[in-house]
Amino acid sequence: MFCFFIGSCFGSLLCVIAQRVPLKKDFITTRSQCDHCNNTLRFWELIPIFSYLFLGFRCQRCGGRIPVITWLIEIIYGGIFYFCWVQPTISMQLIAFLWLTTATLLSLTDYFYFLVEPKILYPLHLLLWSIMFYFHQPFYLSTLSLLVILGIFFWFSLRDSMGMGDWLLLGLWVPWLTIEQFSLLLFVASVSALGVFFVSYFLRKTHFQCLPFVPFLSLGLFVAYFL
């Protein structure tokens, strides 16, 4: 439980980073504020998971609704942090922590802004690749070649189905995946995205103009590579 709670604290921080970095706002020294009234949050309003429940997902001063996404990420990343902690080797702990943290951050920027943020994408993947090479993880040129072929096909036939940021992200992931893992990643991402689309369309009557795809790619990565 202690490990999960520490992870939920990191999850809250990841939400702040994902919201502020694309807007070029400081996330290190500036304290958390209400999105509606801009009042600085007090310490007891920042307790991961529990503060949201105590406040009823509303700012106590202005009554503005607190987005549920932050609460969900605190729970999800608490589980991710625990998952990384129980990996059997230090190499797998580091790889899982960095890869899944990067995927979570980019999922959040895609969710908030439909953007694969370059200031997060490139530095963290440079570090990830360095660690993967350092621990002699297999590098699969065959999977990268398959991605290039798929990219050419989609460019000429289904250009609008995925953004360039999604393809670039896959290009940084797939050299470390077998063709079977890559296929499973795409399958899980596609099925889960379609599931969310249809549930939202038929049950909530929500009509998406576009859907952030990085969260589904991240789910596919977790299933294909880490499970």
UniProtKB/TrEMBL annotation:
<feature type="transmembrane region" description="Helical">
    <location>
        <begin position="126"/>
        <end position="156"/>
    </location>
</feature>
<feature type="transmembrane region" description="Helical">
    <location>
        <begin position="176"/>
        <end position="203"/>
    </location>
</feature>
<feature type="transmembrane region" description="Helical">
    <location>
        <begin position="66"/>
        <end position="88"/>
    </location>
</feature>
<feature type="domain" description="Prepilin peptidase A24 N-terminal">
    <location>
        <begin position="6"/>
        <end position="86"/>
    </location>
</feature>
<keyword id="KW-0472">Membrane</keyword>
<feature type="transmembrane region" description="Helical">
    <location>
        <begin position="94"/>
        <end position="114"/>
    </location>
</feature>
<dbReference type="InterPro" id="IPR050882">
    <property type="entry name" value="Prepilin_peptidase/N-MTase"/>
</dbReference>
<protein>
    <submittedName>
        <fullName>Leader peptidase (Prepilin peptidase)/N-methyltransferase</fullName>
    </submittedName>
</protein>
<dbReference type="Pfam" id="PF06750">
    <property type="entry name" value="A24_N_bact"/>
</dbReference>
<dbReference type="InterPro" id="IPR010627">
    <property type="entry name" value="Prepilin_pept_A24_N"/>
</dbReference>
<keyword id="KW-1133">Transmembrane helix</keyword>
<keyword id="KW-0812">Transmembrane</keyword>
<feature type="transmembrane region" description="Helical">
    <location>
        <begin position="210"/>
        <end position="226"/>
    </location>
</feature>
